[in-house]
Amino acid sequence: MSDFGGMEELLQDFLMESTDLLSDVDNKLVELEKRPEDKALLNDIFRGFHTIKGGAGFLNVGPMVNLCHRTENLFDKLRNGELHITPEVMDVILDATGIVRDMFGTLGQGLMVADADADVLNALDAVLAGEMPGKAAAPAPAPAPAAVAAAPAVQAVASPAPAPAPAAATDGPDWNALHQAIVPQAATAQPAPAAAPAPAPAASAAPAAAVAAVVSTPVQELLPAAEHIPAAKPASKAVANKQPSSAGNSSGPQENTIRIDTVRLDMVLNLSGEIGLTKNRLTTLRTEILQGNRDGNTLRSLDEAISQLDLLVGDLQNAVMKTRMQPIGRLFQKYPRLARDLARQLGKEVELVLSGEETELDKTMIEDLNDPLVHLVRNAVDHGVESPEERIAAGKKPQSLIQLTAEQVGDHIQIEITDDGKGMNPDALRRKAIEKGLIDQETANGLDEKQCLQLIFMPGFSTKDQISSVSGRGVGMDVVRTNIQKLNGRIDINSLPGEGTRISISLPLTLAILPVLVVRACNQPFAVPLAMVREIITIDPNAIQEVSGKPTIVVRDEILPLRTLAGLLGWEPTQKPYFGVLMQSAEKSFILAIDSFVGRDDVVIKPLQNIRPKGVAGATLSGDGSVVLVLDMEDLLSSSDGTNGQVRTSELISV
Amino acid sequence: MPDKNMRFLVVDDFSTMRRIVRNLLKELGFTNVDEAEDGQVALHKLKTQHFDFIVSDWNMPNMTGIELLKAVRADQQIKHLPFMMITAEAKRENIIEAAMAGASGYIVKPFTAATLEEKMNKIFQTMNK
């Protein structure tokens, strides 16, 4: 017999959808171990548990609600930076995830699940409470297991404060009273709930009336008034720290469906039809040639057919690519409101001007661009532009202008966010970075102005001492850069103190095809992303200088470290490198020493199944059919930041 | 009594949840229900089709419930529509934000058909005043 009479179908739907969601969470947890401070990841995982909890609540699966609620709270604290991932915390999370998966299994058999292992619940509580005692952070002391199973799910969501509220209210303020406060506002300005039917405790009814009274005034004025509400229940405050930001909310699971203009689809069909015809022609020619008919006419026909195929395949690739292209306006259109709302909260006057909305970009890239762009827009409003008073004092118009533009430049898309605010002060950034212990004094002195601006991309860098309620949540600039780099893009900053800041993002048109430079080292070809290549130089052994024991070369007054590809890979060099590729990865530039070149190519990356060698993004086939490894330079550099790539200078200089 | 034929739009990114809400509405006798998977899709439907009542989740990708609510209230054609916000978070800022944006009602997950009916009736009462 099933414990879910009448709800089996719903249960199956829930299990199917949630199992996918949990797998996604599992994958993200693995990534999280590598990047424990990645806010976007933390947000995704938070949302995963949140959604599962919501569904489980409706199915009255109290134990699952209970478990997911705690895990969700934990991730809320992690993404707010109140707690940090340690191996122990990770163990607890993985345990919890495992139990949720087991629960899915039990539910799949139509049986109600038992409570999660008390050890795991206690461990979660300990993590939640342990590091921040005295803040009432932990959920209510775990109710007795039997009580949880029996109690309605509402109770299982467990409020810290035992609110003597009507049925619908869970934790925090009295919802019915607040609800009453809302409703009259929607209809008339009739002042709140004198006749509130709910038996609301007087203490919370009064502030609720206050809410109704000020409900049309700006947020700044409203919030102090609203402070009274939870005053009676301080415990709700700890939970209230989480405020869903639109940045976080948008990073949900990606859609797997796409809407395509039928004209574009027809083009694909036409081209594949023509390719079919050309294939027939080639088959006929093959038969003729195999039969010994090799006169000039036949060979000419063969040549024609192959040339035609070449054109058609190129056109087909373009046409298929076009089906994935979407106008970036879909993304842009959300930002003006975002900017306006934020500006209003901050008491600033901001106009966000969009241009180039029709610029098309690969669909997956559009989805992945949202979080970084939301962050940049927020940043521009919050940190970039000044208040009207400051602007007037500086002799500017009170209203500030933020421009968001997209444009196709050659085979790249250029996205720029420009503000006319106060700009960034390189010296202030430098000081801040030293204060935060991100760089030492010596490094700081060596940074030029451009490099100082790059400091904002360092993890842990924030120029505001206090994290305001507006920005400072969601992703940081380091995550913005990581996300852009994941798309094989580049991000640059230009800033003039007093005049404003311009942040430029350059992205390839698509992720499907990657332009690469094919180089040789150790008698093997390797492909490096062309986006990172600045220039190619020959290595003159006499030009190699040793700086603090590391080989470097000076190129146009810039001292660049020299790393050999063989060294980075941990291979024995087979010869002295002749050429250097000047690579630019974010703020780091270096020279990659290689043996020789093959040339540039556009490749389609095939991911390697089951194995993931360090520094290898995937493999591709070259024109002659041989396998070429495509290198992931970031990974290669980070995995060998030790001494691997640092060859002794003597190895590079001919004796 | 509300018209049982009134047309609902249920907005949630989690399809199971849409189905739950749809079932609860059915229990209350409302069978004319359409769904949307996020605020953007919902807004498009609202602008091109006729609806009488919106029930939306808060936490969604692309366009959240609160963004949808603000967009609805800013549109002359549909600004009068009753808008019920669903969320798992019973939090002060949330309800204030929803109130400010003009939500007609607010309901916290999980809820029963009875709770939903009670909240909806309150909305209908206010509308008829």
Question: How does this model look, in words?
Answer:
The complex is a heterodimer of chains A (655) and B (129). The longest helix of chain A is centred in the middle third of the chain and has 29 residues, at 262-290. Chain A starts with 7 loop residues before the first helix and ends with a helix. Residues 132-175, 182-255 and 465-474 of chain A have low confidence and may be disordered. Chain A has 655 residues and is α+β, with helices and mostly antiparallel strands. In chain A, helix 4 packs antiparallel against helix 5 (118-130). Chain A is built from 26 helices and 18 strands. Chain A is globular. By secondary structure, chain B is of the alpha/beta class. Chain B has helices spanning 15-27, 39-48, 65-73, 92-101, 113-128, and strands spanning 8-11, 33-36, 53-57, 83-87, 105-108. In chain B, strands 2-1-3-4-5 form a 5-stranded parallel sheet, sandwiched between helices. In chain B, helix 4 links the parallel strand 4 and strand 5 (105-108). In chain B, helix 2 (39-48) runs parallel beside helix 3 (65-73). The relative contact order of chain B is 0.16. At the A-B interface, helix 1, helix 2, helix 8, helix 10 and helix 12 of A face helix 1, helix 4, strand 5 and helix 5 of B. Chain B: It comes from Aquitalea magnusonii.
